[in-house]
């Protein structure tokens, strides 16, 4: 009786395997030529197919340079497939393991199930592009800092609360995106990434920056929007290559005057902070955005308490309670010099072409290779 019940299951499994083999044999699964490279896109149900390809077409996989799998696979199956990658795909240069392709009934994007990576991935000595966006990472996998040739690392939309000091070992890194995570602090070793050109730390919980950030000598774009920053280190004025600095939607009450002397700065976004004044050099710069700040709003004098008037010329002490209870004064019309011109689009990533994903963050894939699906 049990054999009779198991027979339909065996037939279904055999039919599924046959369908997968047909897809592998055609181009649906598939090995796509990109110049002299091979790109393996196994986005849907890819782990099972990758394991089968490793067993049946191992010589062909030796030429693969781009691999895309879905972050929504069963974690055990995904781990088993990834464990085969270093040995079976030794020429791999780009690995995409994005989640975020599934939505619930309310239309909310569901994160992928990826929480770690096998240590064996550190054997991918040629890997230059790693996309782990829209997953469930809470800590950075230990294998990542050992990827000495890594140039682009995308970690957006995960659950990272910190980055390890070992991140500073990625001396070839030019692009790092950690937007939409839970970062509360940055490692001091971040300043050792001397090749870094683009850094996106927006939508986190940062309330301070280490002065070591000023050591990013190649940095061209820095996005710190939507954090909890109240001040900035003076060392930012040492970022001589900086072209774009985005700081909107923080709690900044001041900015370093040295930012005005950055020779290549073309966009400085300070909207929606708590700035009551800015250095004159910045106020007059055409590339600065200052909307949504209480610029020029003087604190109104509190009403005089009952009793004899104060002696002429005697300074009056304003207590905190008095300041807090004072209504805000009228906002003066914005100065034309404080209104920025239209923002230019982000600079092209060295891994262009770039595409927008469904949640609005940047993703990229190497030139000549298939772009990551969203």
UniProtKB/TrEMBL annotation:
InterPro entries noted in UniProt: Leu-rich_rpt, Leu-rich_rpt_typical-subtyp, LRR_dom_sf, LRR_domain-containing
Pro residues composition bias: residue spans: 300-312, 327-336
Name of the molecule in the record: p53-induced death domain protein 1
Protein source organism: Pipistrellus kuhlii
Keyword Repeat: yes
Region (Disordered) residue spans: 1-28, 294-345
Alphabetical list of Pfam families matching this protein: LRR_1, LRR_8
PROSITE patterns: LRR
A GO CC term attached to the entry: cytoplasm
Keywords from the UniProt entry: Leucine-rich repeat, Repeat
């Amino acid at each position: 009786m049990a054999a009779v019940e198991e027979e339909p299951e065996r037939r279904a499994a055999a039919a599924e395997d046959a369908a997968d083999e047909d897809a592998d044999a055609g181009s649906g699964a598939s090995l796509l030529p990109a110049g002299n490279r091979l790109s393996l896109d196994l986005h849907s149900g890819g782990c099972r197919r990758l394991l089968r390809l490793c067993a049946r077409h191992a010589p062909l996989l030796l030429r693969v340079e781009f691999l895309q799998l879905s972050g929504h696979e069963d974690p055990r199956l995904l781990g088993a497939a990834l464990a085969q990658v270093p040995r079976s795909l030794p020429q791999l240069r780009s690995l995409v393991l994005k989640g975020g392709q599934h939505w619930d009934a309310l239309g909310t994007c569901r994160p992928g199930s990826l929480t770690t990576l096998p240590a064996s991935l550190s054997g991918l000595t040629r890997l230059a592009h790693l996309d782990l966006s829209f997953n469930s990472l809470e800590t950075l996998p230990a294998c990542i800092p050992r990827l000495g040739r890594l140039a682009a690392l995308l970690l957006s939309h995960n659950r990272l609360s910190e980055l390890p000091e070992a991140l500073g070992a990625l001396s070839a890194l030019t692009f790092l995106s950690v937007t939409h995570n839970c970062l509360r602090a940055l490692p001091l070793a971040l300043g050792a990434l001397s090749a870094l050109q683009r850094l996106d730390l927006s939508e986190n919980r940062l309330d301070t920056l280490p002065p070591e950030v000023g050591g990013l000598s190649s940095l061209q774009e820095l996005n710190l929007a939507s954090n909890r920053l109240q001040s900035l280190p003076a060392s930012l004025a040492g970022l001589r290559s900086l072209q774009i600095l985005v700081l909107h939607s923080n709690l900044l009450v001041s900015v370093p005057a040295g930012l005005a002397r950055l020779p290549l700065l073309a966009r400085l976004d300070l909207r929606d902070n708590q700035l009551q004044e800015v250095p004159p050099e910045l106020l007059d710069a055409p590339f600065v955005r200052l909307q949504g700040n209480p610029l020029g709003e003087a604190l109104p004098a509190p009403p005089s308490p009952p009793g004899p008037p104060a002696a002429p010329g005697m300074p009056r002490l304003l207590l905190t309670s008095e300041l807090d209870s004072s209504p805000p004064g009228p906002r003066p019309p914005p100065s034309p010099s404080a209104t920025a011109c239209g923002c230019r689009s982000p600079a092209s990533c060295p891994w262009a072409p770039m595409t927008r994903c469904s949640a609005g963050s940047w993703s990229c894939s190497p030139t000549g290779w298939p772009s990551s699906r969203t």
